[in-house]
Amino acid sequence: MGAAKHLGKVSATAMHDMLNVLAGIKETVGLMEDLLCRCKLDAATLQARFKTMVPAMLQQVGKGVMLAESLNRLGHLVSDDDGPADAADLARLVAALTGRRARMRKVSVHVEETGSACPASDPQGLLSGLGAVLDACYATLPPATELRLALGREDRSGLFRLRCTPPEAAATLAGLDQSCPGLPGDVTLRRDPAAGEWSLVFPCAPGA
Amino acid sequence: MKKIKLLLVDDEENFVKTLAERLEIRGLKPEVVLSGEEAMDFMDKSVPDVIVLDLRMPGIDGMEVLRRVKKQKPDVQVIILTGHGTDKDQSEATRIGAFEYLKKPVDIDALIFSIKNAFQKKVESTFVAAAFAEAGDHKDAEQTLLDGGLADKTGA
Questions:
Q1: Which of A15, A49, B23, B150 could bridge B154 with an S-S bond, Cβ 3.0-4.6 Å?
Q2: Chain A residues with CB-CB distance to B105 below 8 A
Q3: CB distance A19–B104 less than 8 Å?
Q4: How many CB atoms lie within 10 A of CB A93?
């Protein structure tokens, strides 16, 4: 699968999430209209119902805004050539956009930073690589796994170590490299045999 | 019209419960479950006339629920209602026997129209299958249920 396909899948997942958000808002607004026009409710009952519906709708709007902003950022990262981008920020972006798949598998994703900056020199390549790796992890990890992307540096490379809680869940990722062939550019998967831990390695901007 | 036994299956709780209330306001009495597993459990206890089914859900996904429902109770009509609208999914759902494939967000009147048509088809297919069975033609009865309707047989 090429870089464009990985990014396409990330976008499609986010748009699916967005359509669910819009469907939720549409039904809530529709119900408000029904209650106003079709049901003979007194003002107090109507007010009580609306009071519970408005926060739910605002929550949906908030989720929609997050998805729209994330898609907007993804679009600009792919279309613009603005140079290096913060790797942790890119990982959080891909995790947010693929959140629906994670929730479906009851897997949670967290990005752990070391504190030192790690600008990816090929943001598109890293986005695509993260999309491929997270997709494969969602398909494999058992429910209730917490997946942590621990960001680190090695000379001119950055890497995300894939760590699981509970640790036994990591065993299900043994064939991870087979599940995401054709990673883009200089983005690679590397396994530390001693720790049984995968790392997604990517080039960092010189001098960073 | 006989009361329609309607089951809504969707993991988006807020969406499906709000949809159920809107359908109730319009005279339907839907049951709601939040996963494929719950849908199959429901089917063990009660057989709906029409199921409105999401595709992407944790655990047993909608396509698998559709497959199992059509195998166990071929006359039950299934309307797919999903935000994951790929042509491939639509073709597959249709091939398995989905009555209709609708995309979220859906217009409530369009959904009710589809539910009523699906119910009508269910009534007809059950009626024709019963007629074939009464005439001793069990093979045709079974095929009628698998076809989910009158197919070409009523015109013959």
A1: B150
A2: 19, 22-23, 25-27
A3: yes
A4: 24
A103 to chain B: closest CA residue: B58
**Structural domain boundaries enclosing A163:** 85-203
Residue positions counted in chain B: 156
Cα-flanking dihedrals φ and ψ of residue A179, to 5°?
Answer: -80, -20
pTM attached to this predicted model: 0.82
- Domain tally for chain A? 2
**In chain B, which residue ranges form alpha helices assigned H by DSSP?**
13-25, 36-45, 62-72, 87-96, 108-134, 138-147
Q: How many pairs of residues across A and B have Cβ atoms under 8 Å apart? A: 59
CATH of the domain at B28: 3.40.50.2300
Instruction: Indicate if A126 and A60 belong to the same structural domain.
Output: no
Q: What is the pLDDT of residues B41-91, one digit of tens each?
A: 999 999 999 999 999 888 899 999 999 999 999 999 999 999 877 889 999
With a cut of 50, list the residues of chain A below it in pLDDT: none
Amino acid B155: pLDDT: 37
CB < 8 Å from B in window 108-147 of A:
143
Residue type, B6: L
Q: What percent of chain B has pLDDT over 90?
A: 71
At residue A25, the pLDDT reads: 96
Instruction: Print burial letters for B66-79: b (CB count within 10 Å at least 16), e (below 16).
Output: bbebbeebbbbbbb
Q: How far apart are CA B145 and CA B126, in angstroms?
A: 7
Task: Respond yes or no on whether ipTM tops 0.85.
Answer: no
